[in-house]
Write a structure and sequence with these properties.
flat
Length: 226
C-alpha cells in the first residue's frame, strides 16, 4: 500500500471524529443562535423606534464590513486586554453567532417584507393581534421565502468553522494541521480535510433541496387562499 494511502486511511477517522465532535456542534449552535439573533434584529429594524433601529443598523454595518477572522481574533485575543477572558470554543461560538445574526437578519427582513401588505390587513380585519398575525400569517409565508438563502448560509457556515482553528479550537481543520505538523504531509491531510467538508456540504445540499421541495408543496394552497 502506498505511504500516502496509509496516511490517508489512518488520519481519516481522527479528522472525521473531530468534525462530528466539534465542527458539527459548533455549526449547529452558531446557526441556531445566529438565526434567533437575526430574527430579533430583523423585527427591530422593521418595527422598533428609530434609536433601536440605528443601533442594529450599526451592528449589521460593523459585522458585514469586517472580516470574520478579524472578529474572532478581537473576541479571543483582544477582549482579554479588557479583562474579558473566554475559552476558545466560547469565543468562536460568540463570533459565529454575531456574524450569522447580521447576515440572516437581512434575509429574514427581506422575507417579511415580501409578504403582501394585504396579508397584514386581512389578519387585522378578522381581529388578530400583531403577535398572532406574525405567528400565524407572516412568519409561515416568510419562512418559505427565506429557506433557500438561510440554507446557503448554513452550508457556508460549515466551511467557515474552519477559521476556529486560528483560535486553537480542536475542530477538524485544527486536527489536520496537527497531524500535518507531525507527518510533514500537508497536501494529503488538507485534501482529505477538504473531502470531508465536501461530504458534509453535499449532505446538507441534498437536505436543502428536500426542504425546499417540501415547502413549495403549499404554494398553490397559499396562492389560492389569496
Amino acid at each position: 500500500m502506498p505511504p500516502w494511502l496509509t496516511l490517508a486511511l489512518h488520519s481519516f477517522w481522527p479528522l472525521l471524529k473531530a468534525g462530528l465532535a466539534l465542527t458539527v456542534p459548533l455549526t449547529l449552535f452558531s446557526f441556531v443562535g445566529g438565526l434567533l439573533l437575526g430574527f430579533v434584529v430583523a423585527l427591530i429594524r422593521l418595527f422598533a423606534p428609530p434609536p433601536a433601529v440605528a443601533i442594529v443598523r450599526f451592528y449589521i454595518w460593523l459585522i458585514r464590513g469586517t472580516p470574520l477572522l478579524v472578529q474572532l481574533f478581537i473576541i479571543f485575543y483582544g477582549l482579554p486586554n479588557a479583562g474579558i477572558v473566554l475559552d476558545a470554543f466560547t469565543a468562536a461560538l460568540i463570533g459565529f453567532v454575531l456574524n450569522v445574526g447580521a447576515y440572516t437578519s437581512e434575509v429574514i427582513r427581506a422575507a417579511i417584507l415580501s409578504v403582501p401588505r394585504g396579508q397584514w390587513q386581512a389578519s387585522s380585519a378578522i381581529g388578530m393581534t400583531w403577535a398572532q398575525t406574525m405567528r400565524r400569517t407572516i412568519v409561515p409565508q416568510a419562512t418559505r421565502v427565506a429557506i433557500p438563502s438561510l440554507s446557503n448560509s448554513f452550508i457556508s457556515l460549515v466551511k467557515d468553522t474552519s477559521l476556529a482553528a486560528a483560535l486553537t479550537v480542536p475542530e477538524m481543520f485544527q486536527v489536520a494541521q496537527q497531524i500535518a505538523a507531525v507527518t510533514y504531509e500537508p497536501l494529503i491531510l488538507y485534501c482529505e480535510t477538504a473531502l470531508i467538508y465536501l461530504i458534509f456540504s453535499s449532505v446538507l445540499s441534498a437536505w436543502q433541496t428536500r426542504i425546499e421541495t417540501r415547502s413549495m408543496r403549499h404554494v398553490p394552497k397559499l396562492e389560492a387562499a389569496q
